[in-house]
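To whoever is on call:

I kicked off a structure prediction for a single chain this morning and the downstream step that reads the tokens threw a length-mismatch warning. I double-checked the sequence; it's 483 residues and nothing unusual in it as far as I can see. Pasting both halves so you can look.
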Amino acid sequence: MSKGQTIGSTAILPGAAAEAPPEVAATPGKRIALLRVLGPGHVWALGVGIVLVGEYMGWNFAVGKGGPVAALTACWLAGILYTCVAMIDSEITSTVAAAGGQYAQAKHIIGPLAAFNVGLYLVMAYTMLEVSNAIVTGDLIEAFLANHGIPGSVDKRAFMVLTIVALAFLNYRGVLASLTLNLLITAAAFVAIVVLFLATQPWAPGAVLQHQSLFVELPYGSLGILAAMHFGLWFYLGIEGTTQAAEEVRSPARALPLGTMTGMMTLLIAATATWYVCSGLMPWEYLGQAVTPLYDAGRLTGNPYLEVFLFFGTLFATVASANGCINDASRAWFAMGRDRYMPAWFGAVHPTYRTPYRSIVFFVPIAILFAISTPLDQTIAFSILSGLLGYTLMALSIILFRRKWPLGTIARGYVHPMHPLPCALLLILCIVTYVAVFLGYGTQLVAMMTFYITASAWFVLHRYKYVRRGDQFTMHWPRPKGY
């Protein structure tokens, strides 16, 4: 089956033409590819490393929206949403094992315009998450120094900039080193949550945790559960980033499903334990607006060693998340450049380090600008909304994937169970969360939608003519059913 025949599976816009190929070769005729060096542990570290920071900060804004019970309900509903995302993602990505993750999925299954938008959703979600991590890193270090009698000694913005630049440099030098670091510090951050949970003696109510005196149910009624869904996603946002490593794992069919699903189980445990500890140590009014709730929880235990441990746990979580976000955003942008959805200049691979170095460097000043100028809740809202748009299209992708290539027609590395139930649950929970986002951040929702509509018009009217339609389809599948 030729590439030209494969294109028949996807809607094609008219007027495509060729642009100069990207600089991905050190010598004429030799194409430099990304290295396949990662295993399931690295995939776990990439997914959990990006997301675990959601247990250290951001999720608690859901408490401010509806109280502790609303936050826990949102946590579990979001857990169902992301379990569906993980299952659907594992099936498609273990089959479409290419850099770009959901962008590559949409490109092969839905069509060019959907792929362009999904690529933008990914880049915005990961970049805004990286910015959020940099902001929290600065606030955390500033708070730690102030708590130990060293106030005003440094500007927290310096730590924001240092975090972004240092991690970009690490990613520039190689994916194996950066994700091995993520594996180590993510494991340490998860251990910190477990240690805090055990230190608060959950088996002895009232000894440390004061749920009986602090707990309130629904201060704003059932509407608070809906409002809390917005920040409930923050417990897990980014687990789908495991797919960005698809072109760099040794065995996509094994590593991607195993790393993603194990990561999701890890996060469900960590999210519930985090909520339980924090709601028993802090009044919900304070918890709902705290910048570093787990570090605050460590301080409130009165154990100075635990406070220091949680400081490093929070620091490790933010660094691991920012590191993973740089990896994922650059891979999505690189894939779009390689396919000429963006200028081909971004599709270059470093001849020595074998990384998408131009895509990595490009986002450094953008992330710094947002970090020093945008409030934390705004960057979180932007990241969540971009991710939510991608999840909506993911539900459409799996429907078309199963319809065009039914089970048995192509080799799949993993088949998610109970189809189409996960797809239906994902769509329902996405709609609920859109309503929640509109209730709290209606202006930002309209602004982001305007941005994506404008970008889509630019792609259709201008950029698509540079795309080589045949080169972007890398899977040698049979003609889809019905075509």
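Update from on-call: the warning came from a stale cache, not from the record. Cleared it. Sanity check on the structure: Residues 3-10+43-466 form a domain with the Amino acid/polyamine transporter I fold (CATH 1.20.1740.10).
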